[in-house]
Amino acid sequence: MRRILTESYALVKLGLPVALAHVFQVGLQVVDTIMAGQYGAKDLAGISLAGSLTMPLMILMIGTVNATTPIVAQLAGAGRFAEAGFKVRQGMWVGLGMVMLIIAIIINLAPVLGWFAVPRDIAGITTSYLSFVIWGYPAWAMFLLLRTTAEGLGHTRPPMYIALASLIINIPLNYAFIFGKFGAPELGGAGCGVATAIVMWFQLTAMLLLVSAGKFRQLALFSGQFSPDITSIREYLTVGLPIGLKIFGPVGVFASSPLFIARYGELPVAAGSIGGNVTTLAFMVPIGFATAATIRIGQAVGREDSAGASLTSFCSIATSMMIALIIGVLMFIYRYEIAGLYTSDKDLLAMTASLLIWVAFYQFADATQEPAVGSLRGFKDTQAAMWYSIGAYWLLALPLGTLLAYGYLTSEPMTVFGYWTMFIVAESIVALLAGRRLMRILSKGKV
Question: I want to staple 157 with a disulfide (CB 3.0 to 4.6 A). Which of 17, 218, 243, 397 is the partner?
Answer without folding.
Answer: 17
